[in-house]
C-alpha cells in the first residue's frame, strides 16, 4: 500500500473498474475489488496473514456464492476473550484466536503475536475474533464475536 504498490494502477491499466480500495480493517486494509468485463477481480494485501484473513472474509464467500452454494459464510459464535486487546478506534480488527469449549462457555485466546508477517498465528488459530470499530480496548472477560475457521477445541486438546 506504499509508494511502490502498483497493483491498483496496473488493474486500472488493464481495464478493471475499481469498486473499492482500502478497507478500514486490520489486517487487510489494502484490499481492493473491481470488475473486468463483469467478472470479479480481488486484490489482496501482500502480507501473508493479511491475505489469508481477507481471503477468508471476502473471497471465499464470493467464490462459494458464484459456485452456487447457499451456505457461504462459516459459522459465528460468541466467546469470552481471555486477554485484553488494544486496537485503533477507527478500524475493525480481526484477531487470530484459539477457541476452546471449557464445558461452560467458549473462550478465545490470542493465537500469538498478531504481526501480519507471522504465519504461525494462522496455524494455531481456529477462529477470528471481530473487534469492532469505535473502541480502542476490549477487556479480558468480555464476550466477542468469533468467525470460526476450524473446529472448536476442548481444553485438553487446545495446546
Helices and strands, with pairings:
Elements: H1 7-13, E1 17-21, E2 25-26, E3 32-36, E4 39-43, H2 48-66, E5 76-81, E6 85-86, E7 92-101, E8 106-110, H3 120-124, E9 127-131, E10 137-138, E11 143-148
Parallel strand pairs: 2-7, 5-8
Antiparallel strand pairs: 1-3, 3-4, 5-11, 6-10, 7-8, 7-9, 9-11
Q: What's the short story on this structure?
A:
This protein has 3 helices and 11 strands; from the N terminus they run H-E-E-E-E-H-E-E-E-E-H-E-E-E. With 159 residues, the protein is an alpha+beta fold.
Walkthrough of the structure:
This protein is an alpha+beta fold. Helices cover 19% and strands 33% of the residues. It contains three helices and eleven strands; from the N terminus they run αββββαββββαβββ. The protein has a five-stranded mixed β-barrel. Strand 7 and strand 8 form a beta hairpin. The protein starts with 6 loop residues before the first helix and ends in an 11-residue tail after the last strand. The mean pLDDT is 93.
Tell me the distance between the termini. Answer: 35 Å
How would you write the strand order of the largest sheet? Answer: 5-8-7-9-11
Query: Which residues form runs of ≥5 with pLDDT under 50?
Result: none
Order of helices and strands: HEEEEHEEEEHEEE
